[in-house]
Amino acid sequence: MGLFGSRRKKHGLYYLLPGMTRANREKRKRVFRWSIVVGLLAAAGIGGVLWLVNR
Fold it and tell me: What residue spans define the domains of the chain?
């Protein structure tokens, strides 16, 4: 017990802004991963097209 109440953090109880819930964080993480995958595939596709054009 600290001077100003419990030392335990109350994770998941209070949020500063809307959209800071765990579900939202997981959704953003999933979108981020898929965007990386799509970006790598698009870069490979464009690179392949450029390689074929310049042959």
Answer: 1-55
